[in-house]
Amino acid sequence: MLSRLTMTVPKVATFTSGVRFFANTAAKSARYGGGQSGFGSRVNQGFGVRTGPTLKERLLGPTTGKPFVYGTYALAGASVFGVGALMYYGLVSKEQSILQKSAIWPSYVRERISTTYAYLAGSLALTAVSGVAASRSAAIMRLTAGGGMMSLFGTMAAMIASGMLARSIDYESTVAKHLAWALHCGVLGAVFAPLCFMAGPVLTRAAWYTAGIVGGLSATAITAPSEKFLMMSGPLAMGFGVVFVANIGAFFLPPGSALGASLASIVVYGGLILFSAFLLYDTQRLVKKAENHPHSSQLYGSDMQIRSFDPINAQMSIYMDVLNIFMRLVMIMGGMNGNRRK
């Protein structure tokens, strides 16, 4: 889970400008074939002389915008698949779902899940408040919005360290646990502070779209067979590796180049699909954890000591999924919004 924190580090302004570049100029070239100019028009004359651009020139030359077009196609396909899965599991499938099992849950399981989602709402609220506050601090903005390696690794270290601290403290240590949790949310809010410079309508639409995606995916997870999406851990790990490597590569390449645009498309559109799938997985994992974690009533007469169920730790993975979905929606909508303003 801690390695997933690094997915919140990509430079928002860089990727947004890449999407905006696609929206302004590259879409026409991708859709209509474009003109023969630049690297693509270079033709060498003479016998035995290579014609056309080299592979390096193609990768580092200007993009046609096709990576972003393909990204929208992949996102549309994933959306259709998600709607189909919701309809199938909700109306057709006869396998026992989480929703059906909830009728026989003990009261403590319901309490655990409701408390976890209450902390999730609190985490999002703390992140939003701290993000707005951090956006008004020049020193914090220089650290989080800077383009250097120190900014990248500094924010990564702060997120991972605060997350490890919050998870390591026992839930029964009430004050220390909640202070560490608030610190972690504050750090993530500071990392997301550059998003506050987007237009207000963009953030509002992205928030509503995120709520719709999270609600739809949560409904899919609870209507599906209770452990259906827990079998996705292998593919999710591989997909995370691809997006993570693309994220690192995109940090060093301009989004206007063919290779940079391809990596940015993987990070933005591929990451949106990936973290939507992670949300399905983490939702069912939360329910399974709430069901299987021992309760004091099950140990009546025993001297065994167990740690109580920790709703703060339980919500952290879903919390990161929601933030990553929101961030990528802001990138996409911010780029397209810039094109409409022009």
Question: What does this entry look like structurally?
Answer:
- It is a multi-pass membrane protein.
- Its main location: membrane.
- It comes from Caenorhabditis elegans.
- This is Growth hormone-inducible transmembrane protein.
- It is found in: Membrane.
- By secondary structure, the chain is mostly helical.
- The chain has one domain.
- Helices cover 70% and strands 0% of the residues.
- The chain contains twelve helices and no strands.
- Helix 1 (12-32) packs across helix 12 and helix 5 packs across helix 8.
- The radius of gyration is 23 Å and the shape is globular.
- The relative contact order is 0.19.
- Mean pLDDT is 76; it is low at 5-9 and 13-47.
Write the layout of secondary structure elements.
Elements: H1 12-32, H2 55-60, H3 66-92, H4 98-101, H5 107-134, H6 138-144, H7 149-168, H8 174-191, H9 200-223, H10 233-252, H11 258-292, H12 311-341
Please report the distance between the alpha carbons of the first and last residues.
Answer: 40 Å
**Content of β-strand:** under 5%
Number of helices: 12
Task: Give Rg in angstroms.
Answer: 23 Å
* Low-pLDDT stretches: 5-9, 13-47
Largest sheet: none
Average of pLDDT: 76
Shape: globular
- How many domains would you count in the coordinates? 1
Number of strands: 0
Please write the string of helix (H) and strand (E) elements.
HHHHHHHHHHHH
* Helical residues, percent: over 70%
The assigned structural class equals mainly alpha
